[in-house]
Specification:
199 residues, 5-stranded antiparallel sheet, 37% helix, single chain, 2 domains
Amino acid sequence: MPPSKRKTVAEKLITIVSKEASKIPDFRKRASQDTIPLHDAIMSGLAVMHLKYPSLLQFGRDCVKKPDKLRNLKSLYRVGQVPCDTYLREMLDPIETRYFRKFFTRLFAFVQRSGRLRQFEYFDEGYLAPIDGTGHFSSGKIDCPECCVKKPGSKNPQYYHQLLACCLVKPGKKEALPLMPEPIIQQVDASKNDCEKRH
């Protein structure tokens, strides 16, 4: 695929995410005219991942010190104001994961309608969809009601979060099509963690 066409597709995908991000209700009780929109925080988070930044701190520094980076954020990601790394975490952490499901369904629909989903077909079997679990949080002090727990009831319990991730792949194809990950959370009335998702 020529670079110019790839850029056009990327812009379309980012536009879809931007539209869905603007629909997520702002959980903050007091929002003034100077408040950074929740949309800008979500799209800044996307930019951090999409541009493969090593940290939120580095991303914030570049936005301050490199005007061209800020111009790209405004033109490509539609970000008006960039939150600092601490504020970005404070804005993104409370958003319920269910709101992000729309991102995946809308993007998948775009891939399907555009005919690109056929590129992932594998012989007559359909599609290859490897599944893997991954950890993204662990602490001996910080926990929440949905944390899984190692050594519960002991003096040093370990709280952690994991995700079950799935994507469509095809041998010989560099790209993968991620599907909505599912959190692995503590079961209701469970005496132990069994790595099953609560329904």
